[in-house]
Write a structure and sequence with these properties.
By secondary structure, the protein is α+β, with helices and mostly antiparallel strands. The chain is built from four helices and seven strands.
């Protein structure tokens, strides 16, 4: 009888251990979250995020998500944050509103003819071809993620 009780306790303990592990694993998911336009606030400037073509998001290595109303807010936020903890840098793709793209692989256009929420005139494009097309129409300068960060440090 004692052996049966110990076996049952071990099985129960095993089930609880597996459940705890699964909860821990699922709670540390490092993935983007959808931006709720008109409801979510910018982590940097506190403005409500409404522009579906300029918003941005950062996801840390621990899965914490920070949302921004513009890529320039995300870049300014990086000055106050340990960037080694950031896993994903995401920006809205200008040609596909609400779609978040990898900002580190995007092409950026700064054109005074395409206003952004914080006035930096900064727009992200998934494809360099799209960015070049808008540059031809609207003017401005193209940047990679690396050259954009260098420009914002100046």
């Amino acid at each position: 009888m004692v052996l049966f009780q110990n076996t049952k306790k071990m099985q129960t303990l095993k089930h609880y251990s597996i459940l705890a592990f699964l909860l821990l694993f699922l709670s540390c998911n490092v993935s983007p979250q959808p931006i709720i336009y008109g409801s979510d606030g910018c982590h940097f400037c506190s403005m409500t995020i409404v522009d579906k073509t300029h918003a941005a998001e950062v996801v840390t290595t621990k899965g914490k998500v920070y949302k921004f109303d513009a890529t320039e807010c995300m870049i300014n936020f990086m000055d106050e944050f340990d960037t080694s903890e950031i896993k994903l840098y995401l920006s809205n793709n200008y040609t596909e509103p609400e779609a978040l793209i990898d900002a580190t692989k995007a092409t950026f256009l700064i054109s005074e003819n395409i206003p952004s929420p914080m006035g930096a005139f900064l727009t992200a494009f998934k494809n360099k071809t799209d960015a070049e097309k808008f540059q031809a129409e609207k003017g401005g300068d193209l940047y990679t993620w690396k050259t954009l960060l260098a420009k914002f440090k100046d």
